[in-house]
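seq:
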Amino acid sequence: MRWLTNLRLPSSASQAPERRWRVGLDDGQRIAIVQPLDPGSRAGGEDWGGDWLSPGGVDLQINGGLGLAFPELTEADLPRLEELLELLWRDGAEAICPTLVTCGVAPLRQALSVLAEARRRHRPGRCRLLGAHLEGPFLEPARRGAHPSQHLCAPSLAALQERIGGFRGGPEADIALVTLAPELAGSEPVIAALRAMDVVVSLGHSAASEAEAAAAYDAGVGMLTHAFNAMPDMHRRAPGPVAAALLRGDVAVGLIADGVHVAPTMAVLLQRLAPQQLVIVSDALAPYGLAEGQHRWDERILTVQDGSCRLEDGTLAGVTLPLLEGVARLARWSGQPGQAIAAATLLPRQLMGGSAAAETALLGMALADSLRWRSGDAGLSWRRSA
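struct:
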């Protein structure tokens, strides 16, 4: 058995002093044993010098790439979609929830069918497709952000059935996640129906008050979509949905860690208040993987500059930064690399039904599929472990 020693595992929990581990690999170079080291132990093996070992990233909110917008997918796009999944793998993403922003019913259903076919065609060396993330159409119009207003819809079971009838819910099925505004009339039965399908429901593009958000969390809403964006901020007299989620403690808090959507200070504050809830997402759009400049997005024009995407009126629409760039930025701002790594590799996995403990999530994984992270003068960097 080959042994790796003196390595660290990411964790959302604070560890003082930080524990070191060793990992045993079987003859197929898969992780077979993960053991903690006693303080001061000199256990044999390849010394990793305190580097971190993690699974790949899991991105719960990514809207496209290489010029493809997921809501516009057709069967002719399958080869380009597979190229995108290979790019995402090279960028350290193990799995994604392809995100379908608000669009028409027919394009939505077509995109779900194309994604199902791509899921069946999965091959090693490609990022895995989890169920889709439907971001809309049950959104508060005043908080729609870049979502096209003509396709917004009041929540109802009939509207839900029209869009997703015949598709399966669950992390490994057609639909894994739905973002909606839970304060809208008609949302309660929609939330209940989605939860019965094993779909995670997320509060987003919402004007919910603290009380309305708390009631939604009680009803089964388990996540916040891009915290602070397209929702009320935390105010001393109006705490809002973010404060309600932090106070509750069991609601995942999605964060776009680019430093533009949320200021670095607020991102670090979220990490300090709720390290076991924080989930980094990319919110990458169709120009991901392409040069900066102007790009088409449905019928509109996106301008990409310094990794940020804006509509012609200046509305912030998303990013073109890889998921793991958000990890590096949060680690630089907070000085907590282990927690930042966990926020993109372990906590989203937990929300999708997996383990948030690295020592469990890594078991059985090929070493070549895992990530090795190193912290140095240039910040946090990663590469494949083998």
